[in-house]
Amino acid sequence: MKKLLFVVAVASLIIPVAKSQDCTSYFPQEKGKKLTYQMYDKKGKPSGKMYYEVLDNQKTKDGLKITTQQWVESADGEVVDTLLLNYYCKQGEFYIDMKASLANMLEKYQGMDIKVSSKDLAMPPHLKVGDQLPDGEVTAQILNNGVKLVTITATVSNRKVAAKENITTPAGTFKCVKITFDNDGKIGFIKTHVKGATWYAEGIGTIRSEDYNKKGKLESSTELVELK
Which domains are seen in the chain, by residue range? Predict the structure, then answer.
């Protein structure tokens, strides 16, 4: 579940558009806004739910900072993971704080020396079909008494605006922009690779997301089922 939540949060980048000081956000901004998502496995069977809530909305000198929380429930209703994420506006663009996306993974290394570097994920305004979007990445080196134990990296790349489509879910029908991407992770010598697609509706957030394996076959999907 941690892997799923991380993929959804970072690659997905699950969420779109409202304006603040000429910043086009791909994330809900209103404090208290709640979105509920149904998750499905590769056979289309429900595998759990994900919940998303805007905890805070602060004006900054650059525009806006949004603090959010996501959490996942298993199919039997047990909360199995939570994740806090920050989004911010800077010079007319919204960014996802990539460092925050590793927080859960780094919990077990508390008390050790952790060095984190990142390139936050930009969500430019005025998306058009065919646009190639900037990559995002984060690297964490964990050291114990000066000795490197493990390096964790996550990269979101090959992001492209693939289409503009109408998507219907139990929450309604939405005009969406579809973004495809690659999501690569590495913990020590263990590597992961996911290809994905996410559909965003302006002013609402992620409407649908899909993950695919190396052969292009659907592995999992998520869709918006309730909006409050």
Answer: 2-227 (2.40.360.20)
**CA–CA separation, 202 and 34 (whole Å):** 16
CA count, 13 A, side-chain hemisphere, 227: 17
Supply the DSSP string of the chain, one letter for each residue: -HHHHHIIIIII------EETTEE-SS--STT-EEEEEEEETTS-EEEEEEEEEEEEEE-SSSEEEEEEEEEEETTS-EEEEEEEEEEEETTEEEE-TGGGGHHHHGGGTTSEEEEEEEPEEE-SS--TTPEEPPEEEEEEEEETTEEEEEEEEEEEEEEEEEEEEEEETTEEEEEEEEEEEEEEEETTEEEEEEEEEEEETTTEEEEEEEE-TTS-EEEEEEEEEE-
Q: Is the pLDDT of residue 62 over 90?
A: no
Q: What token pair was written down for 21?
A: 């000081």
Q: What is the rounded CA–CA span in Å between residue 188 and residue 186?
A: 6
Mean pLDDT of 73-83: 90
Highest mean pLDDT: which range of 20-24, 69-73, 84-88, 160-164: 160-164
For the residues 104-120, what does the mean pLDDT come to? Answer: 89
The residue assigned the tokens 């913990």 is 187
- 128-186 confidence digits (pLDDT tens): 999 999 999 999 999 988 899 999 999 999 999 999 999 999 999 999 999 999 999 99
